[in-house]
Amino acid sequence: MQSLEEQLGYQFRNPLLLAEALTHPSLAYETHRAHFDNQRLEFLGDAVLQLIFTHELFRIFMDFNEGNLTKLRARLVSRVALANYARTRGLGAHLLMGRGEESSGGRFRASTLSDAFEALIGAIYLDGGLDVVRDVVLRLCATELKAIADEPREVNPKGQLQEMLQALAAGSPNYNIISEEGPDHSKKFMASVVWNGQVLGTGSGMSKKQAETAAAEVALASPEVAELVRQRIVHPQDASAPQPA
Predict the structure, then answer these.
(1) What letter does residue 27 receive in the DSSP assignment?
(2) Residues 106, 111, 115, CA angle at the centre, nearest 5°?
(3) Domains along the chain?
(4) What pTM does this model have?
(5) Within its chain, how far is the Cα of 177 from the centroid?
(6) What is the pLDDT of residues 196-209, one digit of tens each?
(7) Which of 46, 101, 115, 212 is catalytic?
(8) Cβ atoms 169, 241 nearer than 8 A
(9) Does residue 151 have an active-site annotation?
(10) C-beta atoms surrounding 237 within 10 Å
(11) Is 127 a catalytic residue?
(12) How far apart are CA 30 and CA 122, in angstroms?
């Protein structure tokens, strides 16, 4: 486990805690023997992560209310976020699991990775204490914390638009970069969002991603989308055929 400890920047005083954190429940099931697994540590690690992230967000966003802080914390402790923390440190390669679980892709499954990361944090807490595990978490999750500090948006415009449109009819919106201006070090991009052949909005930004996000924000506020929603409410049987603006 030395390579994993190097990745974490933490060396366990009690290596059995690390072994427990990395043991998937499938190992005991497959071997038909009593064996510890990482489920109890996962339970503990979840609470430890909640506390650390809550305190850090409370410290950074002094003007945010409880609702805003809760939404930001949800981004940090979602299954997707936890699995990404685990992948970044190559946690999947160190997991101990049954052959059946491994052959079905368990080593790379998001739920397995997120559970293992929580268990790992629980193990570090027991091994080193709260101050130590806090330093480890803030270091391992620094990129995600910085992203939230730089852009503490409560909503994802692209995701919100997609959910709204898919509730009306099948098909996801498509984003197209329709123009680029300026030198390479300072380009400005223009993007459009199209759904079922209809342009719902355009937006600009200093990156393609920013331009697409701006286009989604314009679409969400556009009369075209408002009309589609109205048609859904007034004529729900016609939801599969979007009305032209």
Answers:
(1) H
(2) 105
(3) 2-150 (1.10.1520.10), 157-238 (3.30.160.20)
(4) 0.62
(5) 25
(6) 888 999 998 888 88
(7) 46
(8) yes
(9) no
(10) 6
(11) no
(12) 25
